[in-house]
Amino acid sequence: MSSPISAVSQMLERNQALFVGKRLLVCGALEDDYPRQLATLAQTLTVFTTDYCYYRSQQAALGEAILFDHQLGGAPRFDALLLLMPKAKAEAQYLLAMMTPLLEAGADLFLAGENRGGINGADKLLAPYGDKPIKRDSARRCSLYHGELSKPVASFELDAWFSRYECKAGETELTVLALPGVFSADELDLGSQMLLASLPPMRGKLLDFGCGAGVIGSMLAKRNPDLEVSMVDISALALESSRRTLAVNGLQGKVHASDVYSDIAEKFQHIVSNPPFHAGLKTFYAATETFLAKAPEYLSANGGLTIVANAFLRYQPILDTHFKRTEVVNSDSKFKVYLSKV
Ligand SMILES: C[S@@+](CC[C@H](N)C(=O)[O-])C[C@H]1O[C@@H](n2cnc3c(N)ncnc32)[C@H](O)[C@@H]1O
What we know:
Ribosomal RNA small subunit methyltransferase C, seven-stranded mixed β-sheet, 16S rRNA (guanine(1207)-N(2))-methyltransferase activity, S-adenosyl-L-methionine, alpha/beta, binds S-adenosylmethionine, rRNA processing
């Protein structure tokens, strides 16, 4: 039995005659199995994702038709682009700038998404590439826009898309480079700042889980020259940002994709994180629960997990269940830093 598809995909499904016979490139906020259906309609299908979790969920079915990376290059070879509107507008602009050089002149530009996710800004997003798009459909609080690539396209310059800022934790200064949509792309998060202020000198192997632009792992590598730093994230944009942050500061570290612990096969003395959570929800993000619950399996004897969390998130009971002891080592009205020992 196939799993249910999102409201956006249901809207696309009833418009899928638009994709028949196309050399189609699909990217953006992919979240279900619907793109697989397009493989039977389109002449060719390529799905590009920056989300490792989505990549892993579709890889067996799509094989070489799905690519996980921060960038896709090569000669123009597609005649239609379907962009599923990402949460951050800057990420939509990034994806369009990267994908349009891969399209032939006159290619179809489709933009789909939820109305509350900014899809009705499609006119502005597509303005650099062609005339005003038409609204093909609107249903279930989603919309589909259709334009045409009719303006000349500039080649994609990855370096131009990094934001850059300087930050300081204690005496350690760091330059941070971040691609659009990456957490804390413009300034050091206050929670991460408190986490960094709470960590003692460290040695051995350290895992920075959910590294974002790499600020925590890079700061710690700079402060602790004997520390062997690994960084993981689910986002290809975050991973490339972390690599750049390490490089611009002349630091070394291992950076790779992992959905929670999917690609981790070693143990660490330290795991540190400002873990992901869904703002506004009382429930935790399921991935974070798994991250906390399974952390002891990835810590060596006497190893420790140090995390920062919004004070309203109740991590203590989860940590108490899975660790011998947990203490709050720093806190203010907004954040708490927990240190848990195996
Ligand atoms: C709150 S941000 C922290 C980023 C960075 N460490 C900082 O302090 O600025 C959480 C990060 O976790 C990543 N993330 C979300 N789900 C994940 C998962 N299942 N596995 C690995 N990383 C994940 C997000 O992409 C994001 O970069």
